[in-house]
Design a protein that fits this description.
The complex is a heterodimer. Chain A is of the alpha/beta class. Chain A has seven helices and five strands; from the N terminus they run H-H-E-H-E-H-E-H-E-H-E-H. By secondary structure, chain B is α+β, with helices and mostly antiparallel strands. Chain B is 50% helix and 20% strand. The chains are: A alpha/beta, B alpha+beta.
Chain lengths: 147, 727
């Protein structure tokens, strides 16, 4: 299982490194995390880095929108429930603007009904907090394949 | 003897011949036409020439027909005289001219030289009619027989000619008579014609006269009828100012009798003394100069009645178009009534004006908006405040109906209320509603609308007094929002109605813990291991663990019974506050709320906030239970009442999906829920709060759709000090 995971990680990391130059990785990471919860913003990018991705966290949909990173990133990890523009609204906005960036929704509302709704929106996966690193990797793998 | 016999026979033959000639001559008149003297002479001369074997015979006579002296000559073929007949005639004529005196014996024969004996014979005794001259070669001419024959012939001729003359004379006389008769007849005929014409003309004239007379009679009758029927007084006056006509209306109005006033001076009768001088001057001026200020004009003045009253009249005087001295007709109308009406009208008008002014002033200066609309809601008028409130001018409003500017959700209720107003089901109504201003903004108004009854002149209309309550509404909304916020916070932290929030609160730190732990593991398993990173993530794990613990502590607090602060409180008031907080949300969910709160409900001892949380919880549950109901009204009844056993009861009856009786036992268990997004805490917490107040909370399905939740709490004791809700 660990070997298998390692292979996946390796593959994903290779893809990430091949696709993005070092200089680009500073400002616009391969993966963007948008969540209003500070603990998520602190922990998730670290885990992503450990998994071999450059990552950056944004505290709101609005902050992400003005960062100009949307065209550069390869995957967006998006909290569904946020004050201001919600994750679902941001997703709709991006789709309307023609962006096809794969999106992984995350939510702390333990409600199964949110999942089909999120997938209906075209998300790669919808993960319920707390989620394991393997679940996250599987979702990322799916996302990059779609990419 | 023989000679004798011969002579005798000769004599007899002569005599016979003579007799034959005489008979021939005497028969001549039978062939004469008495009308033709020329023919008489002609035949006579022919007979004589042949009978007497003459050489010629000549006649001259006064022809009564030709009315001239005519001559005729017959010459025998055997005549020796070889002269043209004209010459013979001329000579005989001259001979006769020379010897006019025919009474004498004829003059010597001039033709003797020629061997012709001539012999004149008078046609009457004096030769007045004419002469015949006969000529013969014979020397013995005329013998006795011939003389006899000549004289007989002359007699016969003179008789014939005289008759002819007489006849001619008679004829002439007859002709003359005829002519005169004819002339006279013609004259008579002409006269007759003239007479006929004259008769016709006279008849025409007579007819015309009759017509004229009839017309005059008619006109007179007509005039009389008009005068009699006229509602106006008609008074006629001659150039002396004397009354010549005074109709019944004048008699009625002025009180004089026609018979009494005819011939009287008008000025002395119906002109008031104060105006008489002026009247006389004006009349005199008109007669002198033809200048008038009153003729042909309609004037108002005063007239004097027989009883001395002076009445206001309208008068029009015209000159009668006739030859001779001027005459006048005056038409008078008593305008007392009209004047009175006018005065009343002026008064009424002034009152209306004052009333209108007052109304206008109220309308214009009113601090609230005033709008008048027709029964379809179309604006008729709007005062300045109203115009300002809506941002439209009055003219713009007149193109709109109040429904046009009413916001959608208030259109139907407004329409219903107006209909009830028009049907007489209500006198007036009040409504708080939102209008769209011209600039698109919303303005909230409190409308007091009534139906103003119609009058003879004006149709019914609607009057709305509108108070701008936008600010009030906004602050109310802000207050509601604030309350709602508070209530939300309260609910989130205590009731857990929004259980997702609780899950969120717990899941957030849990997520941090799991992620950090995963990272930490990865950092440690690296080559070389990232110890610093691992330490950092481990610290964060601890921090998030504490956070989760805090959440659990807060949740526990929800069930804790330590915070109840009992006080004497009014359950009705608490319920009203909850209702007002929830109204917006209930409206959004189309819930029709009816509150039946008992009067004089005893106070209870309790924690106002906690009990309100219970009521709010029940209210939300009821609302949620009806969220899928579309086939019936979403009715919710809140009732408070005093219950047996010195308790107060609150009941919440909904028309929602209800619950199965077998599930009733589980309803109040923690984490039991029928909602998709519920956690099953609300009723459990509510029951614990109510029980902390020594009360009871229960549920029962309705007979019809829905369920009823009730709780009771004891009434306030005289001493509240002993009350320990937490125990």
């Amino acid at each position: 299982m660990i070997n298998r995971m390692g292979w996946v990680v390796e593959t994903v990391a290779t893809v990430a490194k091949r696709g993005l130059g070092e200089s680009e990785m500073v400002d616009c990471p391969a993966v963007a995390v948008v969540d209003d919860d500070e603990s998520v913003r602190e922990s998730l990018p670290d885990l992503l880095k450990e998994l071999g991705f450059t990552a950056r966290a944004f505290s709101s949909a609005e902050e992400f929108l003005v960062s100009g990173c949307i065209d550069q990133i390869r995957c967006l990890i998006l909290d569904i429930t946020m004050p201001g523009m919600t994750g679902l609204e941001l997703e709709s906005r991006l789709r309307l603007q023609g962006h096809l960036t794969p999106i992984i929704f995350i939510t702390s509302r333990g409600n199964e009904s949110a999942r089909p709704k999120a997938l209906e929106h075209g998300a790669v996966e919808c993960l319920f907090k707390p989620f394991s690193d393997t679940a996250l990797l599987a979702a990322l793998n799916l996302a990059l394949q779609r990419n | 003897m023989d000679l004798q016999e011969k002579d005798s026979a000769g004599e007899i033959t002569r005599l016979q011949r003579c007799i034959n000639d005489l008979i021939s001559l005497l028969a001549l008149p039978a062939v004469w036409s008495v009308n033709e003297p020329k023919q008489i002479v002609h035949t006579l001369l022919d007979a004589l020439l042949r009978m007497l074997k003459l050489d010629f015979v000549f006649a001259r006579w006064e022809d009564p027909v030709a009315k001239a002296s005519l001559e005729l000559l017959r010459v025998a073929d055997s005549c020796k005289l070889k002269l043209p007949p004209q010459d013979i005639g001329g000579m005989l004529s001259n001979w006769l001219e020379r010897d006019r005196d025919v009474s004498r014996p004829p003059a010597p024969n001039r033709f003797e030289a020629e061997g012709i004996s001539i012999f004149p014979v008078r046609l009457d005794v004096h030769g007045e009619i004419g002469m015949i001259v006969v000529g013969s070669e014979r020397a013995d001419f005329p013998n006795l027989t011939e003389s006899l024959l000549l004289s007989v012939a002359a007699n016969e001729a003179s008789i014939g000619l005289r008759e002819a003359k007489l006849l001619s004379e008679q004829k002439r006389i007859a002709d003359e008579l005829d002519q005169r008769v004819e002339q006279r007849t013609r004259e008579l005929a002409e006269r007759n014609e003239e007479l006929k014409r004259e008769i016709v003309e006279r008849e025409l004239m007579a007819e015309r006269l009759r017509q004229e007379e009839s017309r005059l009679t008619q006109s007179e009758l007509h005039k009389s009828a008009i005068l009699n029927a006229a509602l106006d007084c008609v008074v006629a006056m001659n150039h002396e100012g004397r009354i010549t006509e005074f109709n019944p209306a004048a008699e009625r109005t002025l009180g004089y009798l026609r018979a009494d006033v005819l011939g009287q001076r008008l000025v002395d009768l119906i002109v008031p003394p104060s105006l008489r001088q002026k009247h006389r001057e004006g009349f005199g001026r008109y007669l002198a100069t033809g200048e008038s200020h009153v003729l042909g004009r309609r004037l108002e003045m005063t007239a004097l009645c027989s009883d001395g009253r002076e009445i206001p009249v309208e008068i029009a005087i015209t000159r009668i178009p006739q030859d001779g001295p001027p005459a006048f007709t005056g038409y008078l109308r008593d305008i007392t009534e009209r004047k009175r009406n006018e005065d009343a009208l002026h008064l009424a008008h002034a009152q209306i004006l004052r009333s209108e002014e007052r109304w206008r002033s109220v309308f214009e200066n009113s601090a609230v908006g005033v709008a008048l609309t027709d029964l379809n809601g179309r604006f008729i008028a709007a005062n300045p405040v109203y115009q300002k409130m809506l941002g439209y001018t009055e003219e713009e409003l007149q193109h709109l109906s109040f429904l046009d500017i009413t916001q959608e959700e208030f259109v139907e209720p407004s329409r219903t209320l107006v209909t009830e107003l028009l049907e007489g089901k209500r006198q007036q109504y009040q409504i708080e509603k939102a209008y769209r201003r011209k600039d698109g903004k919303t303005v909230w108004v409190r409308n007091n609308v009534s139906l103003v009854p119609g009058t003879e002149l004006a149709a019914r209309f609607l009057m709305a007094l509108s108070e701008d309550i936008t600010e009030h509404k906004l602050s109310e909304e802000a207050l509601a929002n604030a309350r709602s916020e508070l209530s939300k916070v309260a609910r989130i932290t205590s009731l857990g109605v929004l259980t997702a929030s609780i899950a969120h609160e717990i899941n957030q730190p849990l997520s941090g813990i799991v992620t950090n732990a995963s990272t930490c593991l990865r950092m440690l398993s690296g080559d070389p291991p990232n110890l610093e990173g691992a330490r950092e993530t481990a610290r964060r794990t601890i921090r998030d663990g504490n956070r989760a613990s805090d959440v659990v502590t807060r949740l526990r607090t929800l069930y804790g019974r330590k915070d109840i602060l009992p006080e004497a409180m009014d359950l009705n008031e608490a319920a009203r506050e909850v209702i007002s907080l929830s109204l917006t949300e209930l409206q959004r969910n189309r819930v029709v709320l009816r509150a039946d709160l008992a009067h004089n409900l005893p106070l209870i001892d309790g924690d106002r906030i906690q009990l309100q949380q219970v009521i709010l919880n029940l209210l939300r549950n009821a609302s949620d239970a009806m969220s899928t109901v579309d086939n019936r009204p979403r009715e919710l009844l809140i009732r408070t009442q005093r219950d047996d056993g010195n308790q107060v009861r609150l009941t919440m009856r909904d028309a929602g999906i209800g619950f199965a009786p077998e599930t009733a036992a589980n309803l109040f268990d923690a984490f039991y829920t029928t909602k998709n997004d519920g956690m099953g805490i609300g009723l459990s917490v509510s029951r614990s709060i109510v029980e902390a107040h020594r009360g009871r909370l229960w549920a029962a399905p309705n007979d019809g759709p829905g369920a009823t939740f009730s709780f009771t709490v004891p009434c306030a004791t005289t001493s509240v000090s002993g009350f320990q809700p937490g125990q």
